[in-house]
Every structure is written in structure tokens, then in C-alpha cells.
UniProtKB/TrEMBL annotation:
Its EC number is 1.10.5.1. Homodimer. This is Ribosyldihydronicotinamide dehydrogenase [quinone]. One of its GO terms (cellular component) is cytosol. GO terms for molecular function: dihydronicotinamide riboside quinone reductase activity; metal ion binding; NAD(P)H dehydrogenase (quinone) activity. It is found in: Cytoplasm. Residues 4-192 form the Flavodoxin-like fold domain. The enzyme apparently serves as a quinone reductase in connection with conjugation reactions of hydroquinones involved in detoxification pathways as well as in biosynthetic processes such as the vitamin K-dependent gamma-carboxylation of glutamate residues in prothrombin synthesis. The lineage of its organism: Eukaryota, Metazoa, Chordata, Craniata, Vertebrata.
Length: 272
């Protein structure tokens, strides 16, 4: 098997952080397996988070009504995206696996990482109306979220105060990663490491190291294939799939739940 290339998109301000240790562990373990590992350290890079007209070199097509997606698609086609976006797209293009390493901020990624997603995953390069979800442009690549929380696991449960983590993850894993076609691996969640003693944090990192030994061979999370939806009828689930799932206890996914109970842990474990 050819050596794999891995991109770690990393967002934490401190090299003394648990996130930094998790990033370093991934780099070390994957490199030991023969992988080429590249890290985009967003804070160290002072990566620009805002998606603006400055992301395009030269004149834009319609300055009076600037539309980011359309303008960056044209710029990508003409080789006029700015240097930092072009460089990150190069890294992504060359990678087989992308790991997003971050502390969860307000139930999502930090702004600087969201900016990476907004600016790097441009229309035409990462997705199009014709090529998205299971038919997405990046469907030959794997991606995963690896992150720390500030709250304990019990608080992110179906009866916890923060709500079900599967629901929290749906916009990121389905609405961004799977939308672009990525095969989404189960997330690596480090529950409230700042509230744990040093020994327990070490145990978390050892668990991460163990998982990394086989992460490249992992099966991805399950999502409903795009061809199950009728593009001529507003991309509604086709009647035959509605009927097939009518008698089942759970909905198809967190978002496509068909008014049923959510499938347990479908955004946190593969094969469910």
C-alpha cells in the first residue's frame, strides 16, 4: 500500500495545550507508519478567517454585488485565488486524510478554523451543485474531527443539559465534511481534559495513539446516499425509501429522521 499523506488542520493558541499534545501525538504515530504529515497551524500562520473580496487577485466580476461563492469559483478556475487559499488547497489535494484538531467553541469549531473551511472549501474546488454529498468532489478522501470539550460527557447526552452530541456534530460532519464528499470517520472526542488530573489526560492521549495505529483503515460514518433523493422534487427522500423505512424504529440519520427517534450514536460511531 502506498504511503498516505495526512493534513492536520490545527487551531489552538498554546503549544502547552492538550490540543497541541493531541496534534503532536497524531503527527508522531502517523509518521511512524510511513505517512507524510503536514500541519496547518492556523494561529501560528495568522490565518485570515474572514471570507472577503481580498481573497481574489485582481478585479472581481461584480463588485457592485459581490457574491463570495461565485467569485471564488471563477477565481479558482482562472488561478486568481490568493496565495494562502491556494496553498491550503494544495495541501488538501495531496492528502488522503484530514484531521481537524481543535477545542470546541460554542458547540462548533473556533472562528479561525471555520474561516479555513469557508475560504479553502470553495465552490468548484470542493463542491458543486452536481457533485456533493455521496457524489462529492472529495469523496476519495477521509476526514475527521478531533476535539476537546469544556463540559463532561454526561452533559452532552440525550438527557444532558447541552443536548445530544450527535445533534451538535451533524452540521459539521454532514453539512460541511460529507457535503464536500469526504468519507467522515468517527470523531475523536476528548471530554473535558482541563477538568482531569494529569494521569487521566495521559490515558486519553494513549487511547488516541492506539486508535491512530489503525485509523487509516477505519470505516466511515453512514450517511444517506444522494441518489435516495429526488432532484426533480426538491431533493425529497424518494417514496421507495420512505416505505422501506416506515416500519423501522429509528430515522435514517440525525437530520433525516423522518419524524422518528434518532439513530443512537450515528454521528459518533461507524456502522450504526
Amino acid at each position: 500500500m502506498a504511503a498516505k499523506k495526512v493534513l492536520i488542520v490545527y487551531a489552538h493558541q498554546s503549544s502547552a495545550s492538550f490540543n497541541s499534545a493531541a496534534k503532536d501525538a497524531a503527527k508522531e504515530v502517523l509518521a511512524a507508519q510511513g505517512c507524510t504529515v503536514e500541519v496547518s497551524d492556523l494561529y501560528a500562520m495568522k490565518f485570515k478567517a474572514a471570507a472577503t473580496a481580498e481573497d481574489i487577485t485582481g478585479d472581481v466580476k461584480n463588485a457592485a454585488h459581490f457574491r463570495y461563492a461565485e467569485e471564488t469559483k471563477l477565481a479558482w478556475e482562472e488561478g486568481k485565488l490568493c496565495a494562502d487559499i491556494t496553498e491550503e488547497q494544495r495541501k488538501l489535494t495531496e492528502s488522503d486524510l484530514i484531521i481537524f484538531q481543535f477545542p470546541m467553541y460554542w458547540f462548533t469549531v473556533p472562528a479561525i478554523m471555520k474561516g479555513w473551511m469557508d475560504r479553502v472549501l470553495t465552490l468548484g474546488y470542493a463542491y458543486s451543485e452536481e457533485r456533493r454529498y455521496s457524489q462529492g468532489i472529495l469523496k476519495d478522501k477521509k476526514a475527521m474531527l478531533s476535539f476537546t470539550t469544556g463540559s463532561h460527557e454526561s452533559m452532552f447526552s440525550a438527557d444532558g443539559v447541552n443536548g445530544d452530541m450527535n445533534v451538535t456534530l451533524w452540521p459539521l460532519q454532514n453539512g460541511i465534511l460529507h457535503y464536500c464528499g469526504f468519507q467522515v470517520l468517527a470523531p475523536q472526542i476528548f471530554w473535558a481534559p482541563s477538568r482531569l488530573p494529569s494521569e487521566a489526560r495521559g490515558t486519553l492521549l494513549e487511547g488516541w495513539r492506539t486508535r491512530l495505529q489503525g485509523v487509516l483503515a477505519e470505516k466511515p460514518l453512514s450517511f444517506t446516499p444522494l441518489d435516495c433523493f429526488d432532484g426533480e422534487k426538491g431533493f425529497q427522500l424518494k417514496p421507495e425509501f420512505q416505505e422501506k423505512n416506515a416500519s423501522k424504529e429509528y430515522g435514517l440519520t440525525v437530520g433525516i429522521h423522518l419524524g422518528k427517534a434518532l439513530p443512537p450514536n450515528s454521528q459518533m460511531k461507524a456502522g450504526v
